Amino acid sequence: MEIKSVCVFCGSRMGARPDYLEGAKTLGTELARRGLSLVYGGTSVGLMGAMADAVLAGGGKVVGVLPKMLSDREIAHKGLTELHLVDSMHTRKAMMAQRADAFIAMPGGVGTFEELFEITTWAQLGIHHKPIGLLNVADFYAPLLALMRRAVDEGFIPETRAQPFACETSPAALLDQLLKVGQPLAPPKPVLRPEQT
Protein backbone atom coordinates (compact mmCIF):
# COMPACT_ATOMS: atom_id res chain seq x y z
CA MET A 1 0.00 0.00 0.00
CA GLU A 2 1.42 3.36 -0.99
CA ILE A 3 1.37 5.89 1.83
CA LYS A 4 0.51 9.42 0.73
CA SER A 5 -1.10 10.82 3.88
CA VAL A 6 -0.47 10.40 7.60
CA CYS A 7 -2.96 11.07 10.38
CA VAL A 8 -1.30 12.39 13.54
CA PHE A 9 -2.89 12.32 16.98
CA CYS A 10 -1.30 14.71 19.48
CA GLY A 11 -1.96 17.23 22.22
CA SER A 12 -3.96 20.44 21.92
CA ARG A 13 -1.56 21.72 24.58
CA MET A 14 2.20 22.18 24.29
CA GLY A 15 3.10 19.94 27.23
CA ALA A 16 5.69 20.57 29.92
CA ARG A 17 8.86 19.83 27.92
CA PRO A 18 10.31 21.78 24.99
CA ASP A 19 11.10 18.40 23.41
CA TYR A 20 7.41 17.91 22.63
CA LEU A 21 7.15 21.10 20.62
CA GLU A 22 10.41 20.34 18.84
CA GLY A 23 9.12 16.85 18.00
CA ALA A 24 5.90 18.27 16.55
CA LYS A 25 7.76 20.78 14.40
CA THR A 26 10.29 18.20 13.24
CA LEU A 27 7.57 15.73 12.33
CA GLY A 28 5.70 18.41 10.37
CA THR A 29 8.84 19.42 8.50
CA GLU A 30 9.64 15.78 7.71
CA LEU A 31 6.13 15.09 6.41
CA ALA A 32 6.38 18.07 4.06
CA ARG A 33 9.89 17.09 2.93
CA ARG A 34 8.67 13.63 1.96
CA GLY A 35 5.56 14.94 0.18
CA LEU A 36 3.22 13.31 2.71
CA SER A 37 -0.03 15.08 3.52
CA LEU A 38 -0.97 15.62 7.16
CA VAL A 39 -4.44 14.67 8.40
CA TYR A 40 -5.16 15.91 11.92
CA GLY A 41 -7.73 17.46 14.26
CA GLY A 42 -7.86 20.90 12.60
CA THR A 43 -6.90 23.19 15.47
CA SER A 44 -4.33 26.00 15.62
CA VAL A 45 -3.29 25.43 19.24
CA GLY A 46 -0.84 23.17 21.08
CA LEU A 47 1.29 20.54 19.38
CA MET A 48 -1.47 20.13 16.78
CA GLY A 49 -1.14 23.71 15.57
CA ALA A 50 2.66 23.73 15.69
CA MET A 51 2.86 20.56 13.60
CA ALA A 52 0.37 21.86 11.02
CA ASP A 53 2.29 25.15 10.78
CA ALA A 54 5.53 23.24 10.13
CA VAL A 55 3.94 21.19 7.33
CA LEU A 56 2.54 24.33 5.71
CA ALA A 57 5.87 26.18 6.09
CA GLY A 58 7.51 23.30 4.22
CA GLY A 59 5.03 23.57 1.35
CA GLY A 60 3.02 20.52 2.39
CA LYS A 61 -0.70 19.79 2.37
CA VAL A 62 -2.72 19.76 5.61
CA VAL A 63 -6.25 18.40 6.03
CA GLY A 64 -7.97 19.35 9.29
CA VAL A 65 -11.13 17.78 10.68
CA LEU A 66 -12.78 19.60 13.58
CA PRO A 67 -16.20 19.20 15.21
CA LYS A 68 -18.24 22.39 15.01
CA MET A 69 -18.74 22.33 18.78
CA LEU A 70 -14.96 22.60 19.27
CA SER A 71 -14.24 25.19 16.59
CA ASP A 72 -14.24 28.00 19.16
CA ARG A 73 -12.69 26.14 22.11
CA GLU A 74 -9.86 24.54 20.14
CA ILE A 75 -9.63 27.44 17.67
CA ALA A 76 -9.90 26.24 14.08
CA HIS A 77 -6.74 26.69 12.01
CA LYS A 78 -7.48 29.23 9.28
CA GLY A 79 -4.57 28.47 6.97
CA LEU A 80 -5.09 24.79 6.13
CA THR A 81 -5.28 23.26 2.68
CA GLU A 82 -8.65 21.80 3.71
CA LEU A 83 -10.68 22.30 6.89
CA HIS A 84 -13.74 20.14 7.44
CA LEU A 85 -16.17 21.18 10.20
CA VAL A 86 -18.14 18.08 11.16
CA ASP A 87 -21.08 17.28 13.43
CA SER A 88 -19.44 15.04 16.05
CA MET A 89 -16.28 13.47 17.43
CA HIS A 90 -17.32 10.17 15.84
CA THR A 91 -17.53 11.77 12.41
CA ARG A 92 -14.18 13.49 13.00
CA LYS A 93 -12.38 10.24 13.77
CA ALA A 94 -14.05 8.37 10.92
CA MET A 95 -13.10 11.04 8.40
CA MET A 96 -9.50 11.24 9.63
CA ALA A 97 -9.19 7.45 9.43
CA GLN A 98 -10.67 7.41 5.93
CA ARG A 99 -8.37 10.18 4.66
CA ALA A 100 -5.15 8.67 6.07
CA ASP A 101 -2.89 5.85 4.88
CA ALA A 102 -0.98 5.60 8.20
CA PHE A 103 -1.27 6.85 11.78
CA ILE A 104 1.12 8.39 14.30
CA ALA A 105 0.49 9.20 17.95
CA MET A 106 2.66 11.89 19.52
CA PRO A 107 2.52 12.86 23.20
CA GLY A 108 -0.90 14.09 24.24
CA GLY A 109 -3.72 13.60 26.72
CA VAL A 110 -6.82 11.46 27.03
CA GLY A 111 -8.10 12.39 23.55
CA THR A 112 -4.82 11.28 21.98
CA PHE A 113 -4.88 8.00 23.92
CA GLU A 114 -8.49 7.34 22.91
CA GLU A 115 -7.74 7.96 19.23
CA LEU A 116 -4.66 5.72 19.35
CA PHE A 117 -6.50 2.86 21.04
CA GLU A 118 -9.50 3.09 18.75
CA ILE A 119 -7.42 2.97 15.58
CA THR A 120 -5.35 0.12 17.04
CA THR A 121 -8.53 -1.79 17.93
CA TRP A 122 -9.82 -1.30 14.40
CA ALA A 123 -6.57 -2.78 13.08
CA GLN A 124 -6.85 -5.79 15.38
CA LEU A 125 -10.40 -6.39 14.16
CA GLY A 126 -9.28 -6.20 10.54
CA ILE A 127 -11.25 -3.02 9.82
CA HIS A 128 -8.08 -1.50 8.38
CA HIS A 129 -4.53 -2.66 7.62
CA LYS A 130 -2.77 0.70 7.85
CA PRO A 131 0.46 1.05 9.83
CA ILE A 132 0.44 2.75 13.23
CA GLY A 133 3.39 4.39 14.96
CA LEU A 134 4.29 6.02 18.26
CA LEU A 135 6.58 9.05 18.20
CA ASN A 136 8.08 8.38 21.61
CA VAL A 137 9.43 11.84 22.41
CA ALA A 138 11.23 11.96 25.78
CA ASP A 139 10.16 8.33 26.38
CA PHE A 140 6.59 9.57 26.82
CA TYR A 141 5.06 6.23 25.82
CA ALA A 142 7.23 3.98 28.02
CA PRO A 143 4.36 3.46 30.53
CA LEU A 144 1.97 2.55 27.69
CA LEU A 145 4.40 -0.01 26.30
CA ALA A 146 4.77 -1.46 29.80
CA LEU A 147 0.97 -1.63 30.12
CA MET A 148 0.71 -3.45 26.79
CA ARG A 149 3.32 -5.92 28.01
CA ARG A 150 1.38 -6.42 31.26
CA ALA A 151 -1.82 -7.11 29.32
CA VAL A 152 0.03 -9.76 27.29
CA ASP A 153 1.54 -11.35 30.41
CA GLU A 154 -1.90 -11.43 32.05
CA GLY A 155 -3.47 -13.15 29.05
CA PHE A 156 -5.60 -10.30 27.69
CA ILE A 157 -3.58 -9.68 24.51
CA PRO A 158 -2.00 -12.46 22.41
CA GLU A 159 1.79 -12.42 22.20
CA THR A 160 1.47 -11.78 18.45
CA ARG A 161 -0.24 -8.45 19.23
CA ALA A 162 2.16 -7.33 21.97
CA GLN A 163 3.65 -4.57 19.81
CA PRO A 164 0.90 -3.42 17.43
CA PHE A 165 2.70 -0.21 16.49
CA ALA A 166 6.12 0.93 15.40
CA CYS A 167 7.90 3.00 18.04
CA GLU A 168 10.73 5.49 17.49
CA THR A 169 12.06 8.66 19.10
CA SER A 170 12.93 10.26 15.75
CA PRO A 171 10.27 11.43 13.26
CA ALA A 172 12.47 10.43 10.31
CA ALA A 173 13.10 6.93 11.70
CA LEU A 174 9.42 6.43 12.48
CA LEU A 175 8.33 7.51 9.01
CA ASP A 176 10.96 5.19 7.51
CA GLN A 177 9.37 2.30 9.42
CA LEU A 178 5.81 3.20 8.50
CA LEU A 179 6.64 3.61 4.82
CA LYS A 180 8.08 0.10 4.61
CA VAL A 181 5.37 -1.61 6.66
CA GLY A 182 2.54 -3.18 4.70
CA GLN A 183 0.35 -4.62 7.44
CA PRO A 184 1.43 -4.06 11.05
CA LEU A 185 -1.17 -6.52 12.34
CA ALA A 186 -2.25 -9.80 10.78
CA PRO A 187 -6.00 -10.13 10.34
CA PRO A 188 -7.46 -12.02 13.31
CA LYS A 189 -8.07 -15.75 12.88
CA PRO A 190 -11.73 -16.76 12.98
CA VAL A 191 -12.92 -18.20 16.27
CA LEU A 192 -14.22 -21.71 15.64
CA ARG A 193 -17.05 -23.24 17.63
CA PRO A 194 -16.35 -26.73 19.05
CA GLU A 195 -18.47 -28.43 16.38
CA GLN A 196 -16.33 -26.80 13.65
CA THR A 197 -13.02 -28.23 14.92
UniProtKB/TrEMBL annotation:
It is an enzyme of class 3 (hydrolase). Pfam families: Lysine_decarbox (PF03641). SUPFAM superfamilies: MCP/YpsA-like. It catalyses: AMP + H2O = D-ribose 5-phosphate + adenine. Gene3D superfamilies: 3.40.50.450. Its EC number is 3.2.2.n1. PANTHER family: LOG FAMILY PROTEIN YJL055W. Belongs to the LOG family. This is Cytokinin riboside 5'-monophosphate phosphoribohydrolase. It comes from Archangium minus.
